What we know:
With 186 residues, the chain is α+β, with helices and mostly antiparallel strands. It contains three helices and six strands. The model has no long low-confidence stretch (mean pLDDT 87).
Amino acid sequence: MKKQKVEETPEQNEKQVENQVTEEKEMTADETADQISADIENLNQEVSELKDKNLRLMAEFDNFRKRSIKERADLIKFAGEDVLKKILPLIDDFERGLQAMDSAEDVKAVKEGVDLIYAKFISFLTENGVNVIPTQNEVFNTDLHEAVTTFPAPSEEMKGKIIDCVSKGYTLNEKVIRFAKVVVGE
């Protein structure tokens, strides 16, 4: 027997090629769909991890902020604690001085005791950055002094200068905490 070769028509060839392309597309589409599903799953997992990290970071920052606010409030609340602890011995000295005044007959000795306590207190203030604003024969400075009144200057060189100090002024680390109340010569 002789095999006959059946010749295919161009239409049949075209149909066969289309069928092969369609099968390849279906296989490729299935593979692509699987790949896309896997990619989506990976991306969803990554998004979940990033959301979790973000949430934890936000919670950590919120805790840090709350802790900082509490520490700042405590610092403000107890800022003067060290200074007050250092003042307590001065209060003890004043109490002893007051007790001594009740029974003391020698006024001079009592005055010496009060002078010692005063010197100790001024020393304490200086150690903690509090200084007296100089006023005697100083030129009037509105940044440091407050003029209570003016008075005719006793001499020409005293014009615009401080003649008298009514109330001492103080600075704390170069910042004025109380202006000196002075009388200025005009």
